[in-house]
Write a structure and sequence with these properties.
- There is one protein chain.
- This protein folds into two domains: 3-55, no CATH class; 73-160.
- The protein starts with a strand and ends in a 5-residue tail after the last helix.
- The mean pLDDT is 87.
- The protein has helices at residues 12-19, 25-38, 73-110, 113-118, 123-160, and strands spanning 3-5, 53-55.
- It is 63% helix and 4% strand.
């Protein structure tokens, strides 16, 4: 059975019109019913994510459009997974940047002259601040290594799925 991807259509009728050639109103109703039967998630169209895989029903009396992506399901699924993994990698990269920024801000506070001055008469607290600063430095270095490893793993996964990152 061929598959297609959901592209944000506003109705099942719009999906049917994009999948099949010149539908009459009666054919459109039949195509809509068959699409919903094969893809029950279409009953709640607002919850279907763009890029979701749709099973295209085999309706011999209707002619499928060839310009719509009705290709080998394995290749199409692999491409969708590659896109999802790539998107995840981008979001993860943004999260790494946010954590690194937070760490730099915390380190700046710990090394600030104001904090040093406030802790001048409290050597125990100053030692704790120094240890915290060392821990933040070590965390930043480890975070960079983890980010590089995650980027490499995601790049390898996407390449293995035939995608581009």
């Amino acid at each position: 059975m061929p598959i297609a991807t959901f592209r944000g259509e506003k109705s099942v009728a719009a999906i049917a019109d994009k999948l099949f050639v010149k539908l009459t109103p009666k054919q459109r109703e039949k195509a809509e019913a068959a699409l919903i039967k094969e893809n029950p998630q279409l009953r709640e169209l607002a919850t279907v994510r763009e890029g979701a895989i749709l099973r295209v029903p085999d309706l011999p009396e209707l002619r499928a459009k060839t310009n719509r992506s009705l290709e080998n399901p394995d290749a199409q699924i692999a491409r969708n997974i590659a896109d999802a993994v790539s998107d995840y990698g981008n979001r993860l990269g943004e999260r790494f940047k946010a954590v690194q920024k937070d760490g730099k801000e915390q380190l700046a506070v710990l090394k600030s002259g104001e904090l040093r001055k406030a802790l001048a008469d409290a050597p125990a607290y100053r030692a704790i601040a120094d240890e915290a600063a060392k821990a933040l430095d070590a965390r930043a270095a480890g975070l960079n290594d983890r980010q590089k490893a995650a980027d490499a793993a995601i790049k390898q996964a996407v390449a293995g799925l035939g995608g581009k990152r």
